[in-house]
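Journal club side-thread
Mid-discussion, someone asked how the predicted structure for our own chain would compare to the paper's figures. Pasting it here so we can look after the session.
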Amino acid sequence: MWAGPMSKTLRGEETLLFAKNFLQHPRMLGSLIPSSRFLVDRLLNKVNWARARTVVEYGPGVGTITGRILSRMAAEARLVVFEMNEDFVSYLNRSYPDPRLHVVHGSAETVQRELDRLKLDGADYIISGIPFTTMPVELRDKIMRESREALNPGGAVLVYQFTRAVLPYLRTHFNQIDQDFELRNILPARLFYCRQEALEVS
């Protein structure tokens, strides 16, 4: 089971791979370098790890957040990550040999199908840094709808972006959204903690 810190060699390879793919696909990544530890910690501190049995991550890239999730998860928990970039998929499989990790080479719009395939009963948390505002409207709406439907009761979607432009789209799918901000990142990041609470009927 992987739980240790990354070596300097892997960290250097991670940064170069991330930068290379940003230059090739800037609209898919949104940033030239991986997220800072300040952003990762602020994001993951929103998770109740005692109840996190199935965690999903969209767009893990080189695993900057993936590794931190694995280090905090319980031994019996599962992490399912969705990555479109084949270079990143290969890197993740090589760098994180943890049986709790399932790397899916595909789109987040298939989240429910993949959870069913893995015989996992929904997600407790979904963590996403994919650039929602630059993707086609139909795809964005499908990912958000599938994400909401894949959540277990009491679950949450944690989204980090570099602008507030995603907020109106989040509000069409979630009725409870808490916001936060992390300045110590390149670029400064906005965080959205999204839940769908049952409305009381009077």
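Post-session note: The first strand starts at residue 54 and ends at 58.
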